[in-house]
Every structure is written in structure tokens, then in C-alpha cells.
Amino acid sequence: MSHAQGTPIWYELMTRDPQAAQRFYEAVVGWRFGEPPPPGSAMDYRMIGAPDGLVGGVFTLTAEMCTQGARPAWVMYLGVNDVDASVASATAAGAQLQVPAFDIPDVGRIAMLADPQGAPFYLMRGASDAESTACAPDRPGHGAWHELHASDGPAATAFYTSQFGWGLGTAMDMGPDGVYQLITVGGQDLAGVMTVTGGGRPAWLIYFRVDGIDRAAERIVAAGGQVVVGPMEVPGGGWIVNGIDPEGAMFGLTGTR
């Protein structure tokens, strides 16, 4: 892994119905999906590819997982140099360990945590130094932006900057909605943190780039999803849409108009 500490390197959709997810996101984003595993496999995990590289994977939630509280969601992986050391540091700072560190042969070492306010994320050290293609803000189908909806934005910002070396970009005053704090990763604006009131579990909202935001919003509805925000213009001249897929997973799209 040749990325700066804390760089997003993979995106994972946790869903109950991978076939339905494939139909939806193929129609909306234009991704291609890997073949399902052979019958009887211990786990159903399918790769997600943009036209020019892999972006993430689809993890199938079992009935038992759902009974224990798991629900459809998008989760990002942050690349780190040492998973165990990063887990120890993050938990000492108030994060909760959800899945202890484990190794996947020829893939890498992985752990899952929830930050001190409950937003889940993965840590990963890849088995090779090959560069991830998942986060590429200017390339269609790739991760373009990462937005943390926190119960306490400043506290969340302090946690991630102290743990992963993230820098502070512009702090934008959103009026009644409070401050939107831009985050730099490896010197590039890649994320934003905001305080969200009125309930709801803190979570990361991942935005993927598409060509034509209005057409993408129409495809969300046509494929059985919901548009909950947008199309809306954001600083810098871009446009965004926040959507919910048919299984209930929240996601974002960004593009031109």
C-alpha cells in the first residue's frame, strides 16, 4: 500500500440482497460486478469495478448478522501502515472495536471499528504495495468525497486528525447547520465533517463520481431508490445527490450539471 496514512482505499456495501444491489448500482453508477461465489461458499463477496479499476466489494449480510443489529450500509476502508497499532491507538482514544484484526491471504490485514460517536469504518494494511484505485475523485465510478455526519463535529474532527494525520482545510459556516469542516488527506481535500442534529446514527456518507448529476438522480428513482437531497450545488461548482438504495443504504453521487 503506497498511500498516505488514513487514505480511503476501498469501499464496501453491506447488503441483504447482492443481486438486487447489483441491478441497482449497475443502472445508477454503471459499475460492473464480479461473479457470485459457487454454491455452498462460506461467504458471498463480490467485487465492484469502474471502467478503469476496482472500487470496492459487496458483502452479503446473513440473517444472523441482521438479528444482531447489522443493516445495509456503505463503509469505507482507511489504509494504515500497522493495523494493530492503529487499533490500539484508536480504541485508547475512545473508538470501539467491532471486528478484531484478522488476515486475509494475499489481501491484507483488516479490522473494523466504530469511532467514539459510533460511525463505523475499517482499517486495512494491504498485502502488497500496489496502489488502490478506489478513491480517484476525478474518475467516473470512483470514490470522490467522504462526509462524516457526526453528533459532535469538532470532537469527531479531533479524533480523526489525531489518529490518521489528516489536516484541516477550510471551515465553512453553514448558518443554522453549523460548520462544515473540510479535511485534507495527503494534502488533498477529500472529506468533510458536519454536526447533524435531530437523531440518526453517526455515519460516513460516501460520494461516487458520475457523469451528469440530473440523469443520475433520475436513474436512482427509476431503479427503485430514493433521492433525499438534491441535485444541489456545492462550493466549487459541483453538484451532489444523496440517495437511498432499495435496501436502505445511504450513498452520495457527485458530478457536473
UniProtKB/TrEMBL annotation:
PROSITE patterns in the record: VOC
Domain VOC: 7-126, 139-256
Gene3D superfamilies: 2,3-Dihydroxybiphenyl 1,2-Dioxygenase, domain 1
InterPro entries cross-referenced by the UniProt entry: Anthracycline_SecMetBiosynth, Glyas_Bleomycin-R_OHBP_Dase, Glyas_Fos-R_dOase_dom, Glyoxalase_6, VOC_core
A Pfam family it matches: Glyoxalase_6
Protein name per Swiss-Prot or TrEMBL: VOC family protein
Species assigned in the record: Leptothrix discophora
